[in-house]
């Protein structure tokens, strides 16, 4: 059938057919059209085509309900309403005991001049108005971690990864909180000493608990009770909170990978994530001189020659020496290398590095896939490559002041996204 | 009728209105219930505009943030979803208005073509690629449909999504998009026709769509035409 754009009359007919399919014709109009359909085969075909293509939209399923989306949205809103950056800590005078907040919240809000909406205060009021809620703090502070770990046995096993957990506690220091004190009255001060970001997280976890179905809640309460009876309770609970925070920092699509995983498979998945992010932190912030020497030697003698092979001849002639530095090579060709190299090639390359690393470095590497190992090294060698925090700062400094003024810096995630896009658009490269 | 009694009546007709009125009174629980009820639909709506789930979720969060911020000015004069999707449409539209977003997320209109053809295959980014003749699995079908939807102009896409997924009437779509009912009728007709053209190869032969013409009705000239 011809394209109706070419024939005005067919446009009118298409409108009629569409309205018919959408149930928007009057009974009289429907009747008239149905009469035409009986007599006109091409019209029937056109109707069938329009209907079929519309039905194909059913292939696009509704995104499944995700409790964490609600949770992270509320955290986002609380941060936005309070006008603070994610990692910002309010100065001490504004950190008041929660019990006090519950009685005087609205007055307090005006008094300290913190732009907290009444609804945000309501979150705090509701959650802190009774001793029962103070008692719940133990479970609530671990809740998102328990939802990821799901089984006490998994948490216990992962808590044995002492070094990895320590690395990640450092990595997540702005959000990590210690286990709540045993004495209930002390818990008020414990909450009050938190940063705004930590409080927002706690608030949304309170809501998660409240909205949780009875069975799940009972199960997590039982797990929490068991862990509190264990001699190693501090260590296991620290691990659970680290896992909760780490998984929260991943995109929802990656977090959903946990759905349905049980036992050993779940353990392996979480362990893999823990090691990957711990290694990224370690090789930038904690590496020993032995690691540093090993990486330097490996870069000069093994990595750099391999990356140079990935530079096309025509490009090599036009690149300056500076552009052929290791940092630039990693920026330009690291992913090309990972995409084009096969597993034996990567293993061969890494075999020149791993044995020379320190014991800590080796233990982290052993639990990563070869591709993850390469990713960690690239992250270490070129932390300012596109998308990194350093790159964002550099890009920000390079773009026009007028454009900068359009950034809403009270919304860091949005500002970061816009800067990255500007970086890509302007081809600002590290 | 007093505002209160009208609100009670609206509450009975549309439970979301009742929730939103509670949100207006700073009821945190009601707000969470609203997010729970609508998150899936809003994320899917945003997926029609951007290229990946993470971006869609970010934009969906912005919608709920705007709903929260605008709660005090909420007046239950229409269905709650009409009001919410108007916000969603504005957020998505403003987001793409930035040329860099548009460049990144929308289909590039055929650089080698002066007629404005869109090569859907240019944006077939599934790692497996689509090979003609091979039966497509659910994920690939979903991807093709999503790409076709994204290939529509902004207004056509929004109208289609509100009609198909929200089951809105032409009047409700007109209210949401600020257009006349007749303009919605024409818009949806063109949208359905374009969608059919985009998906035709797939419908007929089970192949990945190759090329189709899509009107960009978001341009000022064609907006006027719509209305």
Description of the structure:
- The complex is a heterodimer of chains A (430) and B (227).
- Helix content of chain A is 71%, strand content 0%.
- Chain A is mainly α and 430 residues long.
- Chain A folds into four domains: 56 residues; 212 residues, no CATH class; 97 residues, no CATH class; 47 residues, no CATH class.
- In chain A, α16 crosses α18.
- The longest helix of chain A has 24 residues.
- Chain A is extended, with a radius of gyration of 29 Å.
- The two termini of chain A are 53 Å apart.
- Chain B is mainly α.
- Chain B folds into two domains: 95 residues, RNA polymerase sigma factor, region 2, helix turn helix motif (Rna Polymerase Sigma Factor, Chain: A), CATH 1.10.1740; 120 residues, Arc Repressor Mutant, subunit A (Orthogonal Bundle), CATH 1.10.10.10.
- Chain B contains eleven helices and two strands, in the order ααααααβααααβα.
- Chain B has a two-stranded antiparallel sheet with strand order 1-2.
- In chain B, α1 crosses α2, α2 crosses α3 and α5 packs across α9.
- Chain B starts with a helix and ends with a helix.
- Chains A and B meet through α1, α3, α4, α6 and α24 of A and α3, α4, α6, α7 and α8 of B.
Q: What profile does the largest beta sheet of chain B have?
A: 2 strands, antiparallel
Low-confidence stretches of chain A: 1-8, 84-119, 121-129
Content-based structural category of chain A: mainly alpha
In spatial order, strands of the major sheet of chain B run 1-2
* Portion of residues within helices of chain A: over 70%
Number of strands of chain A: 0
* Unreliably modeled segments of chain B: 103-134, 208-216, 218-227
Q: Which structural class do the helices and strands of chain B define?
A: mainly alpha
Give me the count of strands of chain B: 2
Distance between termini of chain A?
53 Å
Mean pLDDT of chain A: 75
* Percent helix range of chain B: 55-70%
> Can you count the helices of chain B?
11
Which chains make the largest contact?
A-B, 56 and 61 residues
State the name of the first-level CATH class of the largest domain in chain B.
Mainly Alpha
- Taking the alpha carbons of the first and last residues of chain B, their distance comes to 34 Å
- Overall 3D form of chain B: globular
How many domains of chain B? The number is: 2
| CATH architecture tag of the largest domain in chain B | Orthogonal Bundle
Largest sheet of chain A: none
Shape of chain A: extended
């Amino acid at each position: 059938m011809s394209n109706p754009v070419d024939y005005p009359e067919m446009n009118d007919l298409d409108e009629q057919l569409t309205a018919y399919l959408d149930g928007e014709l009057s009974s009289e109009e429907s009747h008239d059209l149905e009469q035409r359909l009986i007599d006109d085969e091409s019209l029937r075909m056109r109707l069938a085509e329009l209907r079929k293509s519309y039905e194909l939209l059913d292939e696009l399923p509704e995104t499944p309900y995700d409790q964490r989306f609600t949770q992270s949205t509320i955290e986002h809103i609380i941060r936005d309403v309070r006008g603070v950056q994610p990692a910002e800590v309010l100065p001490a005078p504004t950190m008041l005991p929660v019990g006090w907040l519950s009685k005087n919240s609205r007055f307090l809000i005006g008094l300290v001049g913190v732009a907290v909406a009444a609804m945000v205060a309501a979150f705090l009021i509701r959650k802190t108005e009774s001793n029962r809620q103070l008692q719940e703090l133990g479970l609530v502070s671990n809740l998102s971690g328990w939802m990821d770990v799901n089984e006490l046995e998994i948490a216990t096993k992962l808590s044995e990864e002492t070094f990895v957990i320590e690395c990640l506690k450092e990595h997540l220091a702005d959000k990590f909180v210690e286990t709540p004190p045993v004495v209930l009255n002390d818990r008020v001060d414990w909450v009050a000493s938190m940063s705004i970001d930590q409080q927002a997280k706690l608030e949304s976890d309170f809501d998660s608990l409240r909205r949780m179905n009875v069975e799940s809640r009972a199960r997590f309460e039982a797990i929490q009770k068991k862990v509190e009876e264990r001699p190693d309770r501090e260590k296991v609970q620290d691990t659970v909170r680290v896992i909760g925070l780490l998984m929260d920092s991943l995109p929802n699509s990656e977090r959903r990978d946990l759905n349905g995983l049980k036992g050993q498979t779940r353990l392996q998945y979480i362990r893999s994530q823990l090691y990957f992010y711990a290694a990224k932190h370690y090789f930038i912030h904690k590496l020993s001189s032995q690691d540093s020497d090993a990486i330097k030697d490996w870069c000069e003698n093994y990595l750099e020659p391999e990356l140079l092979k990935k530079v096309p001849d025509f490009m090599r002639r036009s690149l300056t020496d500076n552009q052929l530095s290791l940092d630039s090579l990693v920026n330009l060709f690291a992913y090309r290398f990972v995409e084009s190299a096969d597993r034996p090639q990567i293993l061969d390359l890494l075999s020149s590095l791993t044995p020379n690393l320190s014991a800590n470095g080796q233990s982290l590497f052993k639990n990563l896939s070869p591709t993850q190992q390469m990713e960690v090294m690239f992250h270490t060698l070129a932390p300012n490559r596109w998308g990194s925090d350093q790159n964002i700062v550099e890009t920000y400094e390079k773009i026009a002041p007028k454009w900068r003024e359009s950034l809403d810096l009270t919304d860091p995630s949005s500002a970061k996204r816009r800067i990255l896009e500007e970086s890509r658009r302007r081809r600002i490269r590290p | 009728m007093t505002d209160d009694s009208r609100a009670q009546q609206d509450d009975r007709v549309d439970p979301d209105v009742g929730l939103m009125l509670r949100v207006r009174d700073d009821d945190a629980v009601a707000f969470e219930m609203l997010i729970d009820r609508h998150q899936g639909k809003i994320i899917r709506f945003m997926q029609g505009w951007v290229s990946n789930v993470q971006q869609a979720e970010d934009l969906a969060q912005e919608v709920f943030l705007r709903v929260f911020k605008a709660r005090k000015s909420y007046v239950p004069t229409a269905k709650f979803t009409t009001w919410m999707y108007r916000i969603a449409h504005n957020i998505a539209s403003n987001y793409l208005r930035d040329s860099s977003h548009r460049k990144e997320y929308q289909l590039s209109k055929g650089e080698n073509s002066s007629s404005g053809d869109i090569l859907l295959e240019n944006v077939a980014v599934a790692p497996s690629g689509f090979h003609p003749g091979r039966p497509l699995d659910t994920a690939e079908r979903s991807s093709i449909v999503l790409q076709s939807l994204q290939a529509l102009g902004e207004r056509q896409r929004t109208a289609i999504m509100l009609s198909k997924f929200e089951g809105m009437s032409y009047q409700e779509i007109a209210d949401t998009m600020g257009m006349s009912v007749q303009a919605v009728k024409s818009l949806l007709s063109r949208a359905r026709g374009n969608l059919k053209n985009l998906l035709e190869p797939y419908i007929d032969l089970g192949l990945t769509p190759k090329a189709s013409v899509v009107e960009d009705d978001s341009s000022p000239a064609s907006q006027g035409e719509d209305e």
